[in-house]
TrEMBL record:
Gene3D superfamilies: Isochorismatase-like. Belongs to the isochorismatase family. Residues 28-89 form the Isochorismatase-like domain. It comes from the Eukaryota. This is Isochorismatase-like domain-containing protein. Keywords: Hydrolase. Transmembrane segments: none annotated. GO terms for molecular function: hydrolase activity.
Length: 130
C-alpha cells in the first residue's frame, strides 16, 4: 500500500499495524474523507461496524471540521477533542466549530476528560449477565 505520513506519525503508524486490531491508512484527496457516498474510509468504518468517531487534528475549521460535519450527516456519533484540535486561523473559526459540535453535531470534550473516563472504565469491574 502506498502512503504518505507526517514524519512524527510514521513510527506510531508502523507500531499500530502490529496490534490485534491494526491501524489503517486511507487516502485523503479532499478536506473530508467522507465527502462522497462511497469512500475507502467510509466503507472501512461501515464494514467494521464503527459508529463513534473521535476527532482531533490540525485545521479544526477545515479538514477536522468538514469531516466531523459529514460524519454527523451520515449518522456517526461524533466526539471532538477540543484540546486535541488546533487551527492557525482566527480564534473564532475554531470556537465556531466547538460551539456547533457541542450544540448539534455531536459531543465536545477534552483529551483530559477522555483519559479520566478511560481510567475509570478500566478500574471498574463490569459484570455481564449470563
Amino acid at each position: 500500500m502506498e502512503y504518505r505520513l507526517i514524519w512524527t506519525l510514521a513510527g506510531t503508524y508502523e507500531e499500530g499495524k502490529k496490534s490485534a486490531r491494526p491501524d489503517v491508512w486511507t487516502r485523503k484527496n479532499r478536506h473530508c474523507r467522507l465527502w462522497e457516498e462511497k469512500s475507502a474510509f467510509g466503507d472501512y468504518l461501515k464494514k467494521e461496524g464503527i459508529r463513534a468517531l473521535l476527532f482531533s487534528g490540525v485545521n479544526t475549521d477545515q479538514g477536522v471540521g468538514s469531516t466531523l460535519q459529514d460524519a454527523h450527516a451520515q449518522a456517526f456519533d461524533t466526539i471532538m477533542l477540543k484540546d486535541g484540535c488546533g487551527a492557525d486561523s482566527l480564534p473564532y473559526a475554531k470556537a465556531t466549530h466547538e460551539f456547533n459540535c457541542a450544540r448539534c453535531w455531536g459531543f465536545l470534550t477534552s483529551c483530559r476528560a477522555l483519559r479520566k473516563q478511560q481510567t475509570w472504565i478500566t478500574s471498574t469491574q463490569i459484570h455481564k449477565s449470563d
